[in-house]
Structure to design on (1019 residues):
């Protein structure tokens, strides 16, 4: 599951359980108030509203709106107007200072309470690490759901069942969007054939095999199941045969399996939605008919293509529109994430509108819009999107599992030993046979064959989940009076797969020594090599005259670059080649990492001392070529650095929800940047050292950041009038620490003996030793003249937040 | 060597390649560099010159001498193609290692254009410039700084800590192997010979 931080404090671990109990207890009186008089004020008014409010003990669908609430508003207003009006014959009451009006807020309150319960559960599990290591979170949540359901039932109320509409419209989309937006596209595409075969053929095989066998079992006399026809069984088979993405995600995220297997099982669970939708609707329709003709089967076949391709098509359209919209959002950055969410959700709903595959639409939309949207939106929006998606999908997942537990307690069950046990057995057998057979077929075409270990994991990872449950719940009771039995069987299978398979897959993965996910950091070398290899293979394919995989990929990339990117990406970034974009992304990441690590006080320990000098010794005046960062990127990096390191000094003049007013210090910075550009020529005379932390590219941005953020470089000189006065705000608790930490960092990296003299100078001038080991200076002066050094230093450093009129003055260090 | 190669690919594939060879060479027994100009799709490839160069590189052709050949015959053509054959299931550790090294050596020769056995900073810069050559408006500086950064990263991977007066000459083949450790080239660097039915025959 998405890992949340572990509290780890022993005393605090009791708190979540206290919250839990409080939440549970809180539920009881609220549910009890079902029957209470909601508002004493209305007692005198029309009493006929109340029966509408009191819904009694219906096995109510969760959150179906009580019809009485809207009507209450009217009597209330009527009442008050009457009261103030012509003095109806009412007894005079004292003005109620405090009143209880529960029914008004009932629905949002209950929803919030359930979500809060879900979140507290997650919190509780991570505080007790021993349990969550053995049992996957999904199991724990189902158990909690069972407990809550039991509790509610024990009180005498009827617990809510997972309403299918709520599930399909509100709980499922965030999970799928999260999966689709962050889908590792390269692996997905490489294995697309395999995934499709598993998803389509595998699911079909499962459905028919299971349905057929169950029919045979039903026909066996003595079990009392004779009345279930073939079509009903096939319907049942199609519902239960689909691998569930929610369950797969929940379990596989925790075991960190290698990417290939992860994408195979997960991709299968996503793409089989189309098959499930078609089969479900097909058999549901046919179950009412007497006969199934060839035409019907043919129509079913066609509808499969319509459903899947139509869903993808809708997703692509919405994705393109979203990308296009994001091109113009540069002035309203705040609502950028909202566009992503809304367009994706609309794609889902539009697909559901036409009975197409909503999941595939959502995935297609996320995949299509992502590269363009990410090029257009600001870094903050990107972070927002990422975290909101993770948050929503996490909460959704938790709620789904809890409700599965509650629904198990709440629903009406009909246990039939034969049916349930045979369902379970045949499900497993069908899955194993299907995987084995398909892998044998697929391995003929794959370069990287699937080993038996892989096959085992794929078979074992075929978990069923809430989608099957909800689909079954949607069945019309009048047509399928064995629905309860189906539900029971489905719940049993779900429980089995989630509990038994979910719990045992982790030790099995360790036992079988399956390859785990490698935590590789993406380096610039890898990127260069990967691109080189791509071009090489494309070239070889062209020489062979063989229009293969690489050829088409290259054609698509060229088309993308030439036409699509120009439309969908704003400004200069449309022409940015991938390598440059990657380089900038890495610089940004490292700038942020530096800032964050500086804040906590971690000093990068394994600092490599490789510098330009080491690789290019021949030309003494080595040029420190700064890659041309676009203005936007510089702005963003600068903003991030400033926000973090000089938090106390930021003063936003005005803040309203609609615009974030630009910093008043922008002007100063811009001027400084201009000056810096003029000074670049001077750099040619200087020896530049650059230290590269291990596996990291230390960019000039970083060095600038380090230098710029060291307040000690600017000593306040009260005796000189024409010096910029930059003081450290002593009132703020943060700045002294950040000063110390940053200074520590510099000291550590430059390995300077901490002498008071150097302290005062900061990293200003080191005219004597141009080659002290591992010096962190970006600009150690060689034989060049001091004034230019000074100017350079001044220009390249942050003048500080307070714009001083004397900013243009040269800064004379103490030693000089 | 040809017999060894014949064991690894089917005769059908060799026939296809032979047909293609004859197409490129205009029914002559050897191919020269100019013949590669006839391939239209190759025009868009940014590293076109390096690829063509690789075909004539004597080191790739497993010849003892060094330098560039003027023309190659079909056997040489097949030799080059053999670097791109896919991995097989029944390879043991040693074979796998050899397989991998072969492919990486091919790549190494492509980077190392002056044949001195190591990839210098200038050669690396050249590679990055070529990769970015499809974008004419780009400044030269960007390419160079990326190459510089990559070189430094490579140096820190291969050598680790370095004193300022130490000089890192260039990426040797051993260093190259180290850099490529994380990437499984044996599965990536191949062309699907199996699908030869889809060859576009441009008569």
């Amino acid at each position: 599951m998405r890992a949340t931080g572990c509290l780890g404090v022993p005393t605090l671990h009791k708190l979540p359980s206290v919250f839990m109990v409080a939440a549970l207890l809180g539920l009881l009186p609220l549910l009890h108030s079902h029957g209470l008089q909601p508002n004493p004020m209305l007692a005198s008014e029309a009493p006929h509203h109340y029966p509408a409010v009191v819904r009694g003990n219906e096995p109510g669908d969760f959150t179906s709106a009580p019809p009485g609430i809207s009507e209450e508003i009217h009597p209330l207003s009527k009442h008050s107007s009457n009261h103030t009006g012509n003095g109806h014959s009412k007894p005079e009451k004292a003005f109620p200072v405090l009143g209880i009006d529960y029914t008004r807020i009932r629905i949002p309150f209950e929803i919030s309470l359930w979500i809060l319960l879900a979140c507290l559960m997650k919190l509780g599990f991570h505080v007790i690490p021993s349990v969550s290591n053995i049992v996957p979170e999904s199991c724990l949540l189902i158990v909690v759901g069972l407990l809550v359901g039991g509790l509610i039932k024990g009180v005498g109320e009827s617990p809510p069942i997972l309403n299918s509409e709520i599930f399909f419209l509100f709980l499922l989309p965030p999970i799928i969007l999260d999966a689709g937006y962050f889908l590792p596209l390269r692996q997905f595409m490489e294995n697309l054939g395999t995934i499709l075969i598993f998803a389509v053929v595998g699911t079909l095989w499962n459905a028919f095999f299971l349905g057929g066998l169950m029919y045979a079992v039903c026909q066996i006399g003595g079990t009392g199941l004779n009345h279930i026809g073939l079509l009903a069984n096939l319907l049942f088979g199609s519902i239960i045969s689909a691998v569930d993405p929610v369950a797969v995600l929940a379990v596989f995220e925790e075991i960190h399996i290698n990417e290939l297997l992860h994408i195979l099982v997960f991709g299968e669970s996503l793409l089989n939605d189309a098959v499930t939708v078609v089969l479900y609707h097909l058999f549901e329709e046919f179950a009412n008919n007497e006969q199934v003709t060839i035409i019907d089967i043919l129509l079913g076949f066609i509808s499969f293509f319509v459903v899947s391709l139509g869903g993808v098509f809708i997703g692509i359209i919405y994705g393109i529109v979203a990308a296009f919209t994001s091109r113009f959002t540069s002035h309203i950055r705040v609502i950028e994430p909202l566009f992503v969410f809304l367009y994706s959700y609309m794609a889902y709903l539009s697909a559901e509108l036409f009975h197409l595959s909503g999941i595939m639409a959502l995935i297609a939309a996320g995949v299509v819009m992502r590269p363009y949207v990410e090029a257009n939106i600001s870094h903050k929006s990107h972070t927002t999107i990422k975290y909101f998606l993770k948050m929503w999908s996490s909460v959704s997942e938790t709620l789904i599992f809890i409700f599965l537990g509650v629904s198990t307690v709440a629903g009406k069950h009909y246990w039939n030993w034969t049916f349930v046990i045979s369902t379970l057995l045949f499900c497993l057998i069908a899955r194993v046979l299907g995987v084995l057979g398909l892998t044998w077929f697929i391995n003929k075409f794959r370069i990287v064959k699937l080993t038996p270990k892989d096959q085992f994991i794929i078979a074992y990872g075929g978990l069923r989940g809430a989608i099957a449950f909800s689909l079954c719940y949607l069945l019309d009771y009048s047509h399928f009076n064995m629905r309860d039995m189906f539900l029971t069987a489905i719940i049993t299978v779900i429980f089995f797969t989630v509990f038994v398979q979910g719990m045992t897959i982790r030790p099995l993965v360790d036992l079988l020594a399956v390859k785990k996910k490698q935590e590789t950091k993406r380096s610039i070398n890898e990127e260069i090599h990967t691109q080189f290899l791509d071009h090489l293979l494309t070239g070889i394919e062209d020489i062979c005259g063989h229009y293969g995989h690489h050829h088409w990929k290259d054609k698509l990339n060229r088309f993308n670059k030439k036409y699509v990117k120009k439309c969908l990406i704003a400004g200069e970034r449309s022409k940015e080649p991938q390598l440059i974009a990657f380089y900038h992304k890495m610089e940004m990441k490292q700038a942020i990492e530096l800032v964050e690590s500086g804040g906590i006080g971690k000093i990068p320990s394994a600092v490599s001392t490789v510098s330009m000098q080491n690789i290019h010794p021949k030309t003494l005046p080595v040029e420190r070529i700064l890659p041309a960062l676009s203005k936007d990127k510089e702005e963003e990096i600068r903003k991030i650095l400033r926000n973090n390191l000089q938090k106390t000094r930021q003063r936003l003049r005005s803040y309203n929800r609609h615009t974030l007013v630009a910093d008043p210090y922008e002007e100063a910075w811009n001027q400084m940047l201009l000056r810096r550009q003029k000074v670049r020529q001077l750099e040619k005379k200087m020896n530049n050292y650059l230290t590269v932390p291990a596996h990291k590219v230390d960019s000039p941005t970083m060095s600038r950041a380090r230098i710029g953020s060291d307040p000690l470089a600017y000593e306040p000189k009260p005796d000189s009038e024409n010096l910029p006065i930059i003081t450290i705000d002593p009132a703020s608790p943060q700045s002294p620490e950040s000063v110390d930490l940053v200074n520590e960092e510099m000291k550590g990296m430059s390995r300077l003996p901490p002498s008071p003299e150097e302290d005062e100078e900061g990293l200003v001038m080191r005219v004597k030793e141009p080659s002290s080991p591992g010096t962190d200076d970006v600009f150690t002066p060689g034989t060049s003249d001091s004034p230019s050094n000074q100017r350079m230093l001044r220009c390249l450093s942050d003048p500080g937040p307070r714009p001083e009129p004397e900013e243009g003055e040269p800064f004379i260090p103490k030693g000089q | 060597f040809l017999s060894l190669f014949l064991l690894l690919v089917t005769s059908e594939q060799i026939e296809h390649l032979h047909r293609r060879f004859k197409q490129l060479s205009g029914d002559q027994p050897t191919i020269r560099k100019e013949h590669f100009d006839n391939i239209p799709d190759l025009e868009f490839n940014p590293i076109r010159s390096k690829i063509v160069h690789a075909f004539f590189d004597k080191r790739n052709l497993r010849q003892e001498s060094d330098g560039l050949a003027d023309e190659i015959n079909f056997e040489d053509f097949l030799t080059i193609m053999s670097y791109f054959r896919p991995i097989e299931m029944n390879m043991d550790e040693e074979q796998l290692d050899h397989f991998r090294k072969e492919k990486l050596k091919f790549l190494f020769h492509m980077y190392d254009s002056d044949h001195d056995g190591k990839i210098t900073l200038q050669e690396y810069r050249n590679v990055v410039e070529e990769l970015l050559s499809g974008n004419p408006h780009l400044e030269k500086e960007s390419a160079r700084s990326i190459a510089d950064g990559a070189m430094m990263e490579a140096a820190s991977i291969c050598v680790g800590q370095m004193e300022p007066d130490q000089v890192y000459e260039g990426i040797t083949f051993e260093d190259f192997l180290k850099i490529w450790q994380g990437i499984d080239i044996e599965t990536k660097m191949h062309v699907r010979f199996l699908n030869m039915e889809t060859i576009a025959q441009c008569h």
